[in-house]
Amino acid sequence: MVSGLLEGTQDLVVLSDPAGNVVLCNRAATEFFGRDLEGEPDRSELGEVASALLESLRQGGPSRWSGDVGLTAPDGELTTVSVEAVVHEDDSGEPDFTSVVARDISERVEQHRRLERQASRDPLTDLPNRATLFERISEASAAIGSDPDQHLALLFIDLDRFKVINDALGHSVGDQLLRAISRRVRTAVRPGDVVSRFGGDEFVVLCEGVESIDAATAVASRVESTLQAPFRVEGHDIHVGVSIGIAVAREPADAEEILRNADTAMYRAKSDGRGQWVLFDEELRRSTAERQETLSALRTTRHGDALELHYQPIVQLDTMAVVGVEALLRWERDGVLVTPDSFMQVAEETGLISSIGAWVIEEAMARLAVLRERPGCGHLRMSVNVSARQVADPGFTATVQSALASSGVSPHSVAMEVTETALLDDAVVAAAVLESLRAIGLAVAIDDFGTGYSSLTYLHTLPVDVVKLDRSFVVGAASDERRRAIVEAVIGLTATLGLATVAEGVETLEELDMLRELGCGFAQGNFIKPACTVEQLESFLDEGLSAERS
Ligand code: C2E
Ligand code: MG
Ligand code: MG
Fold it and tell me: What is the distance in A from the centroid of ligand 1 to the CA of 448?
């Protein structure tokens, strides 16, 4: 019966005497080893287990052992087996024979590995996933040792405008592209470096033992150049740009913090114009903290209390009559009045601009209604700056209409100024919204004309009534032939298109005269009147009126 049991089982059973010679090798074991081992020593891993157990028993150890062992077949293939080994003693307590029973568990092990792999890998690219990355950063950070020349570098890589590719060519192309990119990035780094997929179009590279900051930035440059050649996917040649943020840790730090720093640097790379790498350094740490402070101060600000509008008159050049004013936002922060340069970007990026902008529109229109009541001011127009983000906001048109309704001013007396650089990202949406505003009578002005990438494109793709010639073209144009020629060309172009030109930032009499000579219709600037409070504006309007009368 016992022999039936031994021969019938799938388990490998090998019995050996205390000298190590096999006394029984069952059918399964004979098949596995390719022959019956009876009479010879078992030189396999099972034999090693048996003799080790026997030896340990002689030293006073236990007589039984179980555990998983890698077992090499005669053809060299490795099988994982679960082993149960026992030293059996005779009546006098001496070792009689050793039994080793081994069960093939390689399938279970393989399945376990598969599951583990699934949990730790990104299925699309087969790169380590975010969770694995965190673990690896933590380990690497903890291992930063006493050697001051061995840093840890983290590269946060974000593809530029991947969404556009995905939307235009489809997800299948997008997926293949991500795979191809992950392959190229892996070739750009050392074999020991970890390349992981962090999110949709984000990859993070972890490099240990980086000797210097330069070595870290060199990795970023290599990644950039390896991605430079176009990717060919389903017949499309796709050019990929990346923005890379680099954080270098010289001493153990929180994985989360290192990642956040690299992410912050990546954002800076993006906002500085994409397609480049930026290193997280002291300067960036400081500006990030400042930005954070600005944001929380701006969030808690009560618009009516802390925000204020200043106004800059716009004059018609042939008569020097004030025809309108531009509303310019000011924020009273810690008792100091600050200009939009210090907070507008934060407001736009965080969406705070929507509520701030709504306040500006309400306030400006209410002010216009009051100003128009003044003698000789019934014709005044109001220009309001709006950011592209605001224009793209679904509630924007309603905000404008409600401000018109509550102030009672005519839409024909209001212009919206949009900067062309800001329009770039949302041009299609913006164009539609601006068109609908024009339909109800508002004028649309392109602000800072000439400073963006595609000024001329906007002239024919966007609904525009007014072009505001950027200050940079006006400065020095009176004494510089080439600048003067550019100003002249823009004025001629806008006139041909039937648009009005407002020159910005006029600071000298010479500039004013030159603009008038070149046929520019309107101007504003410190020479005429700097942006000022409502009270100052009112006095300025009164002066103009009395000058006219005398
Ligand atoms: P902008 O619309 O081009 O406004 C003209 C800027 O030039 C104003 O700066 C004005 O004070 C300044 N300026 C006027 N004349 C001169 C001059 O002769 N010389 C010099 N050097 N500068 C002159 P400000 O008020 O600091 O506004 C900066 C920018 O912030 C504005 O540029 C506009 O793009 C934005 N902004 C202002 N108010 C708002 C607002 O309510 N909403 C939005 N979205 N943006 C605003
Ligand atoms: Mg403006
Ligand atoms: Mg401007």
Answer: 10
Decide whether any atom of ligand 1 lies within 6 Å of the 420 Cβ. no
In this structure, is residue 291 part of a structural domain?
Answer: no
Domain that holds residue 457: 302-549
The span from the first CA to the last CA of the chain, in angstroms, equals 131
Half-sphere exposure of 3 (CA within 13 A, CB side): 2
State if residue 526 touches ligand 1 by the CB under 6 angstroms criterion. yes
**Does 505 sit in the ligand 1 pocket, CB within 6 Å?**
yes
Cα of 301 to ligand 3 centre, how many Å? Answer: 26
Q: Residues 453, 510: one domain?
A: yes
**What is the number of structural domains in the chain?**
3
pLDDT value for 460: 76
Q: What does R_g of the chain's alpha carbons equal in angstroms?
A: 38
pLDDT in tens, 304-313: 889 999 999 9
Sign of CA dihedral 211, 213, 216, 221: negative
Residues 80 and 154 placed together within one structural domain of the fold: no
Contact present, 138 and 154 (Cβ < 8 Å): no
For residues 292 and 349, the answer to whether their CB atoms sit within 8 Å is no
- Same domain, yes or no: 319 and 453: yes
Q: For residue 115, is it within any domain?
A: no
Ligand 1 proximity of 383 Cβ (cutoff 6 Å): no
Residue 490 pLDDT more than 70? yes
d(CA 126, CA 114): 12
What was the pLDDT predicted at 66? 92
CA contacts within 13 A on the Cβ side of 98: 29
Residue to substitute in 303, 308, 385, 444 for testing ligand 1 pocket (most ligand atoms within 8 angstroms of CB): 385
- Give the pair of three-digit tokens for residue 376: 């000789």
Percent of the chain with pLDDT over 90: 76
Which amino acid, 413?
A: S
CATH of the domain at 76: 3.30.450.20
Ligand closest to Cα of 383 equals 2
Overall average pLDDT of the 41-51 stretch = 93
At residue 425, does pLDDT exceed 70?
Answer: no
Average pLDDT over residues 203-214: 94
Instruction: Give the per-residue SS3 of 5-31.
Output: HHHHCCCEEEEECCCCEEEEECHHHHH
pLDDT on residue 219: 95
Residue nearest to atom 19 of ligand 1 (CA): 505
Which residue's entry shows tokens 């081994």?
A: 102
* Between residues 264 and 113, the one the model is more confident about: 264
Centroid of ligand 1 to alpha carbon of 363 (angstroms)? 17
pTM: 0.69
